[in-house]
Amino acid sequence: MAAIRSLLHRGRTEEAGFTIVEAVVAAGILIIAVILTITPLVISMRALDRSKDVTIAESLAQARIEQIRALEFDDIGHPGSAPSGILNPVEIETVEGANFRVETTVQYVGSTTGLNVIPQGGDGVEGAFDIGVNYKYIQVTVSPVDGSSDPVTMETFVSPPTVGGLENIAVVQIDVDRHEPFDPSLDPVPAVRITGPQIYTSPDGNATQYFPDVLAGSYSISLVTSDGWLLHPETVASGSDSVTATQGVASSRTIRIYQPVSLDVVVLDDTTGLPIDTATVTATDLAYGGPITNPIGDYSFTGLVPDRYGIDVAASGYSSAYAEADVPGFGGAAATSVTVRLVPQAFVGVDYEFFVDYAGWNRYHINGATVAVSHPVHGSFVGTTDETGRVTVELPANETGFSVTATTSHGHGPDSTTFNTGASPASISLSVSKPGGTDRFALRDGAVGPVGFFEYKIGSGPWIQLPANDEGRATFMVPEDRGTVVALRTYCSLADYPGTPAATASTTLNNRNKSWDANASC
Q1: Which CATH superfamily is domain 438-517 in?
Q2: Whole-model pTM above 0.85?
Q3: Can you give the pLDDT at residue 173?
Q4: Which CATH superfamily is domain 261-432 in?
């Protein structure tokens, strides 16, 4: 019996040990199976994430390419670079919580860049010189910020309506703004020329004109075939009529141009309705200043900038008047007419003679000086001196509180004084002067006023008429500007103008006063 119990006990022990081994083996097999299953799954998930990143990157790159192709050619580039434009070189885009870096590069295509549109080289025009500015090559690279996948790169070419710039040359862009209150579509834009180390001319007139391969340096801007267009005073005053071409930079400048317009003033007696031919009319551009005073009886103004003008009218025996007008009227032609009515003054008049000369020479009396008399009650009285330097103005007799100022449009400093009128005619002398920072020109032995006159031109500016006095003399002032050339000429009468001057000369400013003996034979 003992032997039998021992055998049974051993059998049960061996049976229990087999079960534990099987469990351990089975567990091990299960763990290996799980590990072998998870690893490919993790790899697959990572591959899916990378694939998702690549898909998003491709979508972002394609979207940026389409966005760029929708831009104007001139906007495709980076601010401050050549080519210039509005694109940011680097931007960060966030999609489904992931950040992507979007890099955009823009280069010109052509023989000088090494980037070619066709295998033969350049931009596709075989046998023609190619400065490399006819196409733009755009490359967009998108990559996850965390580096989870490789970058995606897409590229495209964009063809321009015009030429642009290049990294290793200077490029100049001139934008032309037409200033006119009437229909600008009727007037084509003139072609532009830039003059500096070399002269470059735009082949045609457009709102934007390009000079793609320019020698570096400073250039002045002018109109080639103006067709009546002129540079706006605002452009000249601000220095926008010049531009600097810098290698590797696309420089741009906006110039404003205008078509000259005219203003005709009709002056009537408010009581009788009859014309008054003894008035002095001054037109002032309310936007840019610059009053223009015509001689007595001249009521027409030509060559004006289209703008709103203030119109002052004064005549002896009448209260002064003021009016404003758009010249020309919006939607109108190139001329405007304004009627001003003067109210007769009820006062006893007395003649006052005003004599104006230049302070440097008592005998250099001034032809064409404006004498403006004002009174707090009676208003303004204006006159213009004749070839003897004199003008007579009728003023209210026996009144106090008058002031008078003599001015010219030729750079002289004004002279003013106050006075009271009496019952008898009287005379008052005024002397215009040489302001500081100017050079004085004394012109002698020229054509004799009132029919004769001088003309002068400062640098490349316009010719300016200068009335001669009865001794064939005149003076004018110019700002001190060493090296500027001043051209001079004199005419015996308007019948000779502009073809046959009686004498001509030119001189270069050197910060000293100048004199010219014209020796005209009139």
Answers
A1: Immunoglobulins (2.60.40.10)
A2: no
A3: 83
A4: Carboxypeptidase-like, regulatory domain (2.60.40.1120)
